[in-house]
Amino acid sequence: MKQKFYLLFIVCFGAFLLNACKRSYTYNAPSEAFYISDQINALLPATKWRIYANSEGLYEDSLKASWIPDNKRGAQVVVVTLDSQEQLNTTTLFNEWKIGKNDMGLLIVLYYDTKEEFPELKYIDYEAGFMMMNYFPALQFSLLIDEYLEPEKSETNLMQFYFEVISYIYVNIYEYESFSYNLENYLDSMYDSYDYPSDKPQKASLPLWVLIIIYLLLPSLGIGIFVGYRKTVGGAGGKSLGYKFRR
User: Fold this and answer.
1) Residue 55, Cα to own-chain centre: how many angstroms?
2) Is 51:162 a contact under the CB 8 Å cutoff?
3) N- to C-terminal Cα distance for the chain?
4) Are 205 and 234 in contact (CB under 8 A)?
5) Is 48 helix (H, G, I), strand (E, B) or coil?
6) Of 8-12, 55-59, 186-190, minimum mean pLDDT range
7) pLDDT of 44-74, one tens digit each?
8) How confident is the model at residue 27 (pLDDT cuts 50, 70, 90)?
9) Which residues are registered as beta bridge partners of 207?
């Protein structure tokens, strides 16, 4: 009887912790891929995979390079697609997703007209983190749009524009000698299928410290348990003060 009481207590306590640890979002939760969230299916798998892989690579490289000052590490570039009829506060989304370590985050929101047979890119939102805005000003972002994305907002142009954004961060912010990308390789494989984390919103999961408590308490009651733990890709704690513009 006593053991059943303790078991009931642990279950209730675990449910309380899970509910307390859940994060609420004004809009959607980040996708499982985090760096790309295309829930309206406006982009090809090849485009999404390259955004995911290159944004993740940038973040990891910025943490590893020995010459980068600690207070500039952790750039995260996140791309989100939305229907052009939808409206959101990009500052709210940025801060809830915590994009970029050391406030070195960059959020790009692409708005598509989904009423067409093939979604058409109508306009684009830019929002930079508190530190990123000093290194990647809105004017520079606008110049890249003029050079690589206008006047035809095709998916090929979008991919080249994204690569140039990443290149600017590598070269002009992190002082790499260069950043190479192969647009022809993208064109040759743009209709191929790719395996990458889902566009589905991330599910709430128990933090590691809660799982440790469960592992410690339940065995003491003679109860065996196995709880899987998978660390999801997510924001590095960044914030924005509302430095943004729309094109």
Assistant:
1) 8
2) yes
3) 66
4) no
5) helix
6) 8-12
7) 999 999 999 999 999 999 999 999 999 999 9
8) confident
9) none
Contact, 167 vs 177, CB < 8 A? Answer: no
- Domain range 36-200+235-246, its CATH number among 3.30.420.40, 3.40.640.10, 3.10.310.50, 3.40.50.2300: 3.10.310.50
Quote the pLDDT of residue 20: 47
Q: What share of the chain is helix, strand, coil (3-state, %, to 5)?
A: 45, 15, 40
* Predicted local distance difference test score (pLDDT) of residue 14: 53
Amino acid at 35: Y
**What is the C-alpha separation between 219 and 241, in angstroms, rounded?**
47
Distance CA 178, CA 116 (A): 38
Give the residue from 55, 52, 93 showing the smallest Cα distance to 74. 55
Peptide bond preceding 45 in cis form (omega within 30 of 0):
no
Least Cα distance to 160 among 148, 145, 178 occurs for: 148
CB count within 10 Å of CB 204 equals 12
- Token pair, residue 128, equals 């930079």
